[in-house]
Amino acid sequence: MEQEIDVQAKRDQMYGELDLGSLTLFSGSFINYGYWDEIDPGRDLTLAERTASQAELYRRVLARLPTPPGAQLLELGCGIGVGTALVAREYAAYTTGLDRSKAQLARAADVNAEALELLSGRLEFQEGSVTDLPFPADSFDGLYSVEALQHVDDLAAVAREAHRVLRPGGHFAAATFFTTDAAADRPLADLLETVASGIDVLRPATAFAADLDAAGFAHVAVEPVGDHVWRQFDRWMSQTEFRDSWGRNWLRCYENGWIDYYIVSAR
């Protein structure tokens, strides 16, 4: 238990006082690795392209959810909330962003102050845990998460809570990195500092799919999208202060077939 508390404290510090989203690595806006199309290899990537890649990852996740105007959606692990605001704005949805970090929620309120005013009550932020959602049953039409679940120790609880708060016929979609079935006994912790420290929990994508199935979801789909993530993100990293960091090993692990990036969806 003490070790779990220490790991969570590290996560809280990373997103709290250290303000991960302010780093060039994340273009000072969203906090995800991005979804990229092919880019001309003969030039540097621009900051605008980096930001656009992160917005596009949100759109790829939302493409797995029915989003009629007025749909009520919940984002798990919203961070500074720019993705939550994007969803409320582009999909005409009533969108709630949930995060456990008071510091991140304060930033979300500040960064999205204009959107909170203009979207006429269709955007809000709330503090809470993704394993114990502070909402009654049957509250939402759709639930999504963009690169947050790698920090959760109990994904089975996430699956159960997601199923509880979704209305009958509701949809779930999440994007993050998982291990492949070929990753057993591979030295991931030796290569990836956040895995060694416990900040990132790497587990098989198939295991999370089984959690969703056990929670009562149907039509569970696991889609690898690493071709649109790892090489382009590594290329961006090579242009930042992290060019000589352990973070370059993400691409190495992907190319060895040990990890991939996935969109997991269910109904």
List keywords for this structure.
Rossmann fold; globular; 18% strand; 7 strands; alpha/beta
Topology, element by element:
Blueprint: H1 2-15, H2 47-62, E1 72-76, H3 82-90, E2 94-99, H4 102-111, H5 113-118, E3 123-127, E4 140-146, H6 155-165, E5 166-179, H7 188-191, H8 193-196, H9 205-215, E6 221-224, H10 230-237, H11 249-255, E7 259-266
Parallel strand pairs: 1-2, 1-4, 2-3, 4-5
Antiparallel strand pairs: 5-7, 6-7
Unreliable segments of 5+ consecutive residues: none
Question: Strands of the biggest beta sheet: in what spatial order?
Answer: 3-2-1-4-5-7-6
CATH-assigned homologous superfamily: Vaccinia Virus protein VP39
Question: Shape, please?
Answer: globular
Helical region count?
A: 11
Structural class: alpha/beta
Main sheet overview: 7 strands, mixed
The CATH topology annotation reads as Rossmann fold
- Cα-to-Cα separation, first versus last residue: 33 Å
Q: Determine the mean pLDDT.
A: 94
